[in-house]
Amino acid sequence: LPFMVQPLQSAFRAVPMSVRESAAVMGASPRDCFFSVVLPLSRRGFLTGMVLTFAHTIGEFGVVLMMGGNIPGETRVLSIAIYEHVETLNYDAAHVLALGLMSFSFLSLWLVYRVAGRGAEVVRG
After folding, report:
1. Does one domain contain both 33 and 78?
2. pTM for the structure as a whole
């Protein structure tokens, strides 16, 4: 949760008060101001929060073992599979899975940053 909340807080604080006041002067209700002005200007914070949350959870290991356990056939996540291969000294399979996980993470983050770069806007107030 903190990985998403902190970037959102920063993004909401970065929206200048003058922009919100301008929306109110132009007749926007607080709800309209939030959805039409503040949220679009906070898009970068949402993206940052999603990337941080994704990066944190993609390789989650400890929580899966503690909460879900390691039930064969039921709790299969890639990080646990890598761990099992390392435990059985099957390093080749562990390397392949780790490379796949790293490639998936890299491509996902690259795609997010690529899409985010197209809509970059600067608002000064």
Report:
1. no
2. 0.61
